[in-house]
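User: Please fill in residues for this 630-position structure.
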């Protein structure tokens, strides 16, 4: 063997040895890694494996019930709703289409209706909701034919039922699926993309009380996400939401709804002893139950397009000129300030000349000589024009309006309350560039001009007069009860909203003057109930058009109360869009008669026998559904 061959063989042996050493090194690395994974890190990888092969599904909690103050039967309850789902990865595309075709035939909808619901990626085992709120009959049908509908399953979810749908829509509100904007705010409070959340009314304000806590089910799944072993399923059960008891009295609520009828407006009944809202009505209303259907979006869109704005809660969101009801504040201010002797008179000729403009009274021939009591009873504009212009002035009038809560939020536990507005000279100059003039003062003196308030604010105004200056924050939540035992876990404590701090004799004198409105004044012909003595004030707000006027009436009863606990304050507002029929005091008459006799609406009308019923019995013959749906 030559030297070259020897050298070549030695080089080859070295290469083989190096390759062998490298192979052994690599093998040792792999063995070490395998040992680490299978022995050292075994627990870690087993946990990771379980996590990657586990799927969690939400078990939705049942929402707490809502009751009226009597706590007998719920006015908002929950029921089990069933949904039909598709588990897409169960066969070929042909089989999928056959199943969807069968479904379309059963529900009498085009097959494209279901095809459009399918995502582009059908690889994973994730249920797709094809039909929600199916009936129990439908559920039984599919359960008995599972072989005919491969890939079809069903799930259940708690849904809402409002048992007095139209009557309480603005009080209760409704619930709906959480939006991306809401989840950004509520994520840290335990809400998820699948949560239902209160959208309006009590449902929104007390959502955290009512919604409960969703449960979770953990299940082992295969690589495609399909459940493979029920024995390893872990369930964390849901927690039922707490129950809410409102201050609303559903009998008085229905009475108020029927009394207002199909007139655009609002009515509020409040207990001044506590601030409890006994009835709160806004018309037009809506049926929140209609939102739980396959045409939820269409129902919602139709309501949004309604020019009468049925979602608007006119009791707290419609601000209008209070008109002559504001004369209650003017009377209190005059007495407190000793601005003009209550027994002194002012001559009402039917008009008052200020500069080159004439301001008229509602009685063209004039009222003659009026003192404070007779001026409030007869609602004499000339008296209050003069009182405001010559004896009080704009700044004092505005100060007393704000003292009575005008231009401020009451803090009622409903969303969307508006504050109204109280004008003054500085505001007008700053915002219009025009100085305040005498005409502005006389308009303000009778509750017209720039001044606007809500029905709730006027109810608070009367509450302050009745309750010796104390006005409690109006509220709807009476108490919260446990989801399991129904025991009271939280009772609403009344809270002072403001204290007028007027002289004691001022309240008594204003109440006496308000009583004269009923016995000798503008409301004498319409407040006809003998069941209780009422004291109140009418108001007719001008809109610039003679044929359109807002109708107001605010009152309290009994006038001769022995205990403030027995008193109900009523405020009714009928919008100028209605045909003028001076309905606000008529509605209040019906409400008070029903409250103090215990009669329902039909019985109240028959008992009172009002002239409008005798002359137009067809109005009375309208059913509640007809009134609500017009």
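Assistant: Residues filled in for all 630 positions:
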């Amino acid at each position: 063997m030559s030297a070259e061959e020897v050298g070549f063989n030695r080089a080859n042996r070295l290469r083989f040895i190096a390759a062998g050493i490298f192979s052994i090194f690599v093998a040792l690395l792999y063995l070490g890694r395998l040992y680490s994974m299978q022995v050292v890190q075994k627990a870690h990888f087993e946990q990771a494996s379980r996590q990657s092969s586990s799927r969690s599904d939400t078990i939705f909690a049942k929402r707490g019930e809502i009751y009226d103050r009597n706590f007998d039967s719920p006015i908002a309850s929950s029921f089990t709703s069933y949904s039909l789902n598709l588990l897409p990865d169960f066969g070929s595309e042909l089989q999928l289409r056959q199943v969807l075709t069968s479904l379309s035939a059963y529900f009498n909808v085009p097959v494209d209706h279901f095809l459009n619901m399918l995502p582009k990626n059908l690889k994973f085992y994730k249920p797709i909701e094809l039909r929600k709120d199916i009936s129990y009959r439908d559920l039984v049908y599919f359960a008995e034919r599972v072989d005919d509908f491969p890939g079809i399953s069903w799930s259940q979810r708690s849904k809402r039922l409002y048992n007095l749908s139209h009557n309480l829509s603005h009080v209760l509100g409704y619930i709906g699926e959480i939006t991306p904007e809401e989840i950004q705010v509520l994520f840290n409070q335990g809400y998820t993309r699948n949560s239902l959340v209160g959208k309006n009314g009590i449902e929104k304000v007390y959502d955290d009380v009512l919604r409960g806590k969703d449960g979770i089910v953990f299940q082992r799944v295969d690589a495609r996400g399909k459940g493979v072993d029920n024995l390893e399923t872990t369930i964390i059960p849901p927690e039922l939401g707490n129950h809410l008891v409102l201050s609303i009295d559903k009998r008085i609520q229905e009475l108020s709804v029927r009394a207002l009828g199909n007139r655009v407006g609002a009515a509020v009944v409040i207990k001044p002893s506590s601030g409890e809202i006994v009835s709160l009505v806004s018309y037009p209303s809506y049926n929140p139950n209609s939102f739980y259907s396959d045409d939820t979006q269409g129902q919602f869109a139709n309501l949004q397009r309604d020019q009468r704005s049925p979602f608007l809660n006119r009791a707290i969101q419609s601000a209008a000129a209070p008109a002559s009801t504001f004369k209650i504040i003017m009377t209190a201010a005059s007495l407190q300030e000793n601005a003009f002797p209550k027994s002194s008179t002012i001559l009402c000729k039917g008009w008052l000349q200020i500069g080159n403009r004439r301001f008229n009274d509602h009685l063209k021939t004039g009222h003659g000589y009026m003192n404070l009591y007779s001026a409030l009873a007869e609602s004499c504009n000339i008296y209050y024009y003069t009182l405001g212009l010559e004896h009080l002035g704009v700044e004092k009038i505005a100060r007393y309006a704000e003292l009575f809560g005008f231009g401020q939020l009451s803090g009622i536990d409903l969303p969307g309350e508006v504050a109204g507005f109280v004008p003054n000279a500085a505001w007008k100059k700053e915002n219009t560039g025009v100085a305040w003039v005498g005409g502005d003062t006389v308009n303000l003196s009778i509750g017209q001009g720039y001044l606007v308030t809500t029905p709730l604010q006027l109810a608070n105004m009367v509450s302050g007069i009745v309750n010796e200056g104390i006005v409690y924050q109006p509220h709807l939540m009476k108490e919260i009860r446990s989801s399991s035992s129904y025991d009271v876990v939280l009772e609403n404590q009344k809270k002072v909203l403001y204290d007028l701090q007027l002289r004691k004799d001022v309240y008594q004198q204003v109440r006496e003057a308000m009583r004269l409105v009923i016995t000798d004044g503008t409301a004498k012909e319409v407040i006809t109930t003998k069941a209780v003595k009422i004291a109140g004030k009418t108001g007719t707000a001008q809109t610039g058009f003679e044929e359109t006027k807002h109708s107001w009436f605010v009152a309290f009863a009994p006038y001769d109360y022995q205990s403030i606990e027995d008193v109900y304050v009523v405020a009714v507002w009928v919008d100028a869009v209605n045909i003028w029929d001076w309905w606000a005091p008529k509605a209040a008459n019906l409400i008070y008669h029903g409250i103090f006799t215990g009669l329902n609406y039909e019985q109240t009308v028959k008992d009172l026998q009002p002239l409008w019923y005798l002359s137009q019995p067809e109005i009375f013959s309208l059913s509640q559904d007809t009134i609500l749906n017009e």
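For context: DSSP finds 25 helices and 23 strands in the chain.
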